[in-house]
């Protein structure tokens, strides 16, 4: 499979070697329900043929990075008990003319040979972006030639004959060529979102399973889910692994609640910089700055609840304030203004107590500028 230039770099995983199924995928229940139709077709194709139904040829999994799109595709193959052929979109692109289209042809030939199966193209935006830009020979770039071949192959086979389901993943569906998304090619777009608090709790339960701790894992998963708003499945996996690493570094016999809290801090704010020593005046400035955020948030009706304030240097920052924002989709003008005021609380605190401001407010000013721009230009507030 890794032979000459024109040979596909796709990797095939036999159905016996796929150890992932839907029970291992949490936090995206709606996406699992949508993709279950493909599983049913691969298990019972005759049922669909008898009714005259045409199963969609493929689906594109969209959503932010780290939400489990690749895992969901692999679990679909595991659930259907069929081989899983995987390739990255960037692997089609080479400097030599004709290599990309040849690899596409070889990949689909491999899929037909191993039918029924699932063919998974990760990061399809690398090869499937909109055409029309300036390219190489004859006005066509190698990427466009590869995309054209992909479109031809999608048109050239039917699920009734080959039982091959093509699944692709991208977090940039907006840049994909419209011809790729039309019915008859990738008929379905399945959105895999960042999980809500219920989804995060179920993901934590999956990742807490193999960890050694005397804590009640159900209660722990709920608590950790409440403290990790906006975390993706990959972030949650990272938190659980970091907690185990911290416990191992401390030579502990099991993972404690404190280890999980330290792991969340590590993921949110970066690694603690014990070697970075602040001057007394700098430490005082950072303390007043972070306290300013906390005090401003306390008196603002719509500000996010404050979880923790620290003046220990982490990552790029000298200190940070951690909040627990509510999970909501619509914001009023008052909520947006309160959030801006809280963000500026640190800068104002420096000005009140020291009569000057420092460069420590740089990140806050960038955030407020983005909020103000969005209110004026996007939401017309």
Automatic annotation (TrEMBL):
PANTHER family: AFG3 LIKE MATRIX AAA PEPTIDASE SUBUNIT 2, ISOFORM A (PTHR43655:SF2), ATP-DEPENDENT PROTEASE (PTHR43655)
Keywords per UniProt: ATP-binding, Hydrolase, Metal-binding, Metalloprotease, Mitochondrion, Nucleotide-binding, Protease, Zinc
SUPFAM superfamilies according to UniProt: FtsH protease domain-like (SSF140990), P-loop containing nucleoside triphosphate hydrolases (SSF52540)
Entry keyword annotation includes Kinase: no
Biological process terms in GO annotation: mitochondrial protein processing
MF terms (GO), sorted A to Z: ATP binding; ATP hydrolysis activity; ATP-dependent peptidase activity; metal ion binding; metalloendopeptidase activity
Pfam families tied to this protein: AAA, AAA_lid_3, Peptidase_M41
InterPro entries hit by this protein: AAA+_ATPase (IPR003593), AAA_lid_3 (IPR041569), ATP-dep_Zn_Metalloprotease (IPR050928), ATPase_AAA_core (IPR003959), ATPase_AAA_CS (IPR003960), FtsH (IPR005936), P-loop_NTPase (IPR027417), Peptidase_M41 (IPR000642)
Name of the protein: ATP-dependent metallopeptidase HflB
């Amino acid at each position: 499979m890794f032979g000459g230039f024109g040979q596909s770099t796709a990797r095939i995983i036999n159905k016996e070697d796929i150890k992932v199924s839907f029970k291992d995928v949490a936090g995206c229940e709606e996406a699992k329900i949508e993709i279950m139709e493909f599983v049913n077709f691969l298990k019972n194709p005759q049922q669909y043929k008898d009714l005259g139904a045409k199963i969609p040829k493929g689906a594109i999994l969209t959503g932010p990075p780290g939400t489990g799109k690749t895992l969901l595709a692999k679990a679909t193959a595991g659930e259907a008990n069929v081989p899983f052929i995987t390739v990255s979109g960037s692997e089609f692109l080479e400097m030599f003319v004709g290599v990309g289209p040849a690899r596409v042809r070889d990949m689909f030939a491999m899929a037909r040979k191993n039918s029924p199966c699932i063919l998974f193209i990760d990061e399809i935006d690398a090869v499937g972006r909109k055409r029309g830009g300036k390219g190489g020979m004859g006005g066509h770039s190698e990427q466009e030639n590869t995309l054209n071949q992909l479109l031809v192959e999608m048109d050239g086979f039917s699920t009734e004959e080959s039982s091959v389901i093509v699944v692709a993943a991208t977090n940039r569906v907006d840049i994909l060529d419209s011809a790729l998304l039309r019915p008859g090619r990738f008929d379905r777009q399945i959105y895999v979102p960042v999980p809500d608090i219920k989804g995060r709790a179920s993901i934590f339960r999956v990742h807490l399973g193999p960890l050694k701790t005397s804590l009640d894992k159900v209660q722990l998963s709920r608590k950790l889910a409440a403290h990790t708003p906006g975390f993706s499945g990959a972030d949650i996996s990272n938190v659980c692994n970091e907690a185990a690493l911290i416990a191992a570094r401390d030579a502990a016999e099991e993972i404690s609640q404190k280890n999980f809290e330290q792991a969340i801090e590590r993921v949110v704010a970066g690694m603690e910089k014990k070697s970075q020593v602040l001057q007394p005046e700098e430490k005082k400035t950072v303390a007043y700055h972070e306290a300013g955020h906390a005090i401003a948030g306390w008196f603002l009706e719509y500000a996010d609840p404050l979880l923790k304030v620290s003046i220990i240097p982490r990552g790029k920052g000298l200190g940070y304030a951690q909040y627990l924002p509510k999970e909501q989709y619509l914001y009023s003008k008052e909520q947006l203004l309160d959030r801006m005021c809280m963000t500026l609380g640190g800068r104002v605190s420096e000005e009140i107590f020291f009569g000057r401001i420092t460069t420590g407010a740089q990140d806050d000013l960038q955030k407020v500028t983005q909020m103000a721009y969005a209110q004026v230009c996007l939401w017309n507030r």
